[in-house]
């Protein structure tokens, strides 16, 4: 990775201690690289400035991404230990950590200008949903297909979903539901119906 990303790299590694749960050093590096690219192109000064949602700034995206990862890992452990399934933990953790990296691009239009430094208009736009731009970032840095296909989490984006992809999607809903209740006193379903720019 280019030394131009040294500031972003430090932020990413500090923000996401769950990176240490990825056994593959190569995959761990790709997750960090995707975040560094997103932060640099989005022009973000601080990874914690990216909000959870365009209209929920009380919780940042880092907290949500970490929550999704923690929920998914615990669920995967139950799937393995209780049901005898064989989820791929590296895929789950990497995909969870990347599922909202696209907000680096999408949410530049929803924060104060002083939080940004010259977002690159070729990438930074609210016109493309973050699950799609996140998929594109994961693809660009060379994440395995199993990780890429688990990132799009809106209904219908991936026609055939894997065990790992379903875990990311359900953990995302669980974390999001907790955040919408905590910040707005409404369920995720109510938030989506009233505010979502992309329907579930």
UniProtKB/TrEMBL annotation:
SMART domains: HDc. It comes from the Archaea. InterPro entries: HD/PDEase_dom, HD_domain, HDIG_dom. Residues 57-191 form the HD/PDEase domain. CDD domains: HDc. This is HD/PDEase domain-containing protein. It comes from Halogranum salarium B-1. The lineage of its organism: Archaea, Methanobacteriati, Methanobacteriota, Stenosarchaea group, Halobacteria.
């Amino acid at each position: 990775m280019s030394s131009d990303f040294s500031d972003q790299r430090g932020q990413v590694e500090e923000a996401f201690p769950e990176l240490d749960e990825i056994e593959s050093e190569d995959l761990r590096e790709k997750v960090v690289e995707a975040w560094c690219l997103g932060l640099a192109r989005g022009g973000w000064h601080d990874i914690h400035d990216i909000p959870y949602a365009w209209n929920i700034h009380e919780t940042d995206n880092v907290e949500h991404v970490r929550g999704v990862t923690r929920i998914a890992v615990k669920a995967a452990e139950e799937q393995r230990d209780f049901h005898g399934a064989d989820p791929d933990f590296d895929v789950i953790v990497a995909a969870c950590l990347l599922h909202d990296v696209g907000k680096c691009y999408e949410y530049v239009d929803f924060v104060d200008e002083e939080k940004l430094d010259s977002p690159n208009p070729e990438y930074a736009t609210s016109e493309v949903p973050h699950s799609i731009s996140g998929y594109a970032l994961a693809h660009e840095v060379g994440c395995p297909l199993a990780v890429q296909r688990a990132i799009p989490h809106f209904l219908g984006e991936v026609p055939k979903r894997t065990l790992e992809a379903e875990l990311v999607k359900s953990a995302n809903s669980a974390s999001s539901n907790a955040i919408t209740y905590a910040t707005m006193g409404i369920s995720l379903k109510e938030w989506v119906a009233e505010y979502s720019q992309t329907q579930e």
